[in-house]
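Bumping with the actual sequence this time:
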Amino acid sequence: MESKKGLRTRAALFAGTGLAVAGLLAAGATPAMAANLAKAKPAAKAKPAAKAKPNPASVVATIKKDWIEFFSGTSSAALKESLVQDPAAFAATIKAQAGSPEAKATSVTVSSVHLVSATEAVVIYSIKLGKTTALANQRGLAVKVGGAWKVSVGSFCTLLDLQGGAPPICKPKTPVKGAKAKAATKTSTKTKK
């Protein structure tokens, strides 16, 4: 047997449904339409819209544009700093290059961009000095930092090392290799015993 509370709840539901059906009939709905609507389940709550995924073609176009602007001899030092990863580490170098006649004659062509992940892309590019290709088919890395695509530290350092006078961020940390690594491992093993 149903409790009084349960009966009251069911009665309220039926009364509400009856009023809704009566309202539909009064509004011109046919009895069949009113009955179907009364039986219908409430609409599910709308799910929040999913975040739009970036269009790969748009990302590739952005990276390509940024690399062309970064290596353009006509771009300002401030613009170049905004397009490189870790701009503070390269600020002095970029400002020094801005006054160089060679840098002013520099341009780049990007032949391809391959998205590796949501935050990295391989860029194949060639650097020109005037109309002459100085470095053809170079491989670089674009990285996404703070929502913006940048020329990676490693890519810019590679070019600065070729030129000479790279900033401290480009200096490799000397890892222990070869025979020295084996000797270091033996020494640390002996001291643990």
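The tokens above came from a reply further down the thread. The first strand starts at residue 106 and ends at 115.
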